[in-house]
Amino acid sequence: NAGVTQTPKFQVLKTGQSMTLQCAQDMNHEYMSWYRQDPGMGLRLIHYSVGAGITDQGEVPNGYNVSRSTTEDFPLRLLSAAPSQTSVYFCASSYSGTGEVPYEQYFGPGTRLTVT
Amino acid sequence: AQKVTQAQTEISVVEKEDVTLDCVYETRDTTYYLFWYKQPPSGELVFLIRRNSFDEQNEISGRYSWNFQKSTSSFNFTITASQVVDSAVYFCALSGARLNFGNEKLTFGTGTRLTIIP
Q1: Touching check for B104 and chain A: CB below 8 Å?
Q2: Which of B1, B12, B2, B26 lies closest to B112 in space, CA to CA?
Q3: Is A5 in the B-facing interface, judged by CB distances under 8 Å?
Q4: Taking CB atoms and an 8 Å limit, are B102 and A48 in contact across chains?
């Protein structure tokens, strides 16, 4: 079990460039999410998905796009990178089950993105 | 709206001392879940505990213990006899019950950086 994998680990972009951060999980988890971590601000939710074909916005969605065509993959697209998007990005997944209990999220190792 | 406050930005203690990390939350839900995650210097986030709003019993796991008090909306985390390996950033987080679409979203606090001095 690889768990949650993210690529790349590091990336430098110029302002205005676009790119896709990849996230994959092999645990058959229905729930997947993207966070950004900035100093002093904790982790903030960008987008999330409760299953293939179903996504929604989190707290800070502007400038980012997601899609979920398979259970395993949940890529995050930066449409036109800005210096304010310099951050560490974490992908996470969790089992959903059938009840009301939210299960713990498993996090990927993170992608450190710098936009110049 | 949900909110989690971790007022302690950084704490340093000498090894073997006990240390308590504070977490205060706000929510309008009657059913909710509280979490603690650890982020060691290597950067990955590790799940520590989940508690639901109906279970106010304290939890102990080895040197770790958690005190949930609904009356003060707090879910504090204590490390007993701290060790250097406990040095990390600790996050408290809050989620609703999975009753409606997206209700299980996690709201994180800003984290407490704990440094254990040898």
Answers
A1: yes
A2: B12
A3: no
A4: yes
Read off the tokens for B79.
Answer: 């490390």
Burial bucket for residue B88 (CB in 10 Å: 0-12, 13-18, 19+) = buried
Q: Do A42 and B52 touch (CB under 8 A)?
A: no
Residue A101's identity, in one-letter code, is V
Q: Taking CA atoms, what residue in A is nearest to B45? A: A107
Q: What is the pLDDT of residues A43-61, one digit of tens each?
A: 999 999 999 999 999 999 9
CA B37 to chain centre: 6
Q: What is the 3-state secondary structure (H, E, C) of A46-104?
A: EEEEEECCEEEECCCCCCEEECCCCCCECCEEECCCCHHHCEEEEEEEECCCCCCCCCC
pLDDT digits (tens, 9 = 90+) for B47-69: 999 999 998 888 899 999 999 99
Q: How far apart, in whole angstroms, are the C-alpha atoms of residue B92 and residue B77?
A: 9
Chain B contact present for A95, CB below 8 A: no
Check if B97 contacts A (Cβ < 8 Å).
yes
Q: What is the pLDDT of residues B65-106, one digit of tens each?
A: 999 999 999 999 999 999 999 999 999 999 987 766 666 789
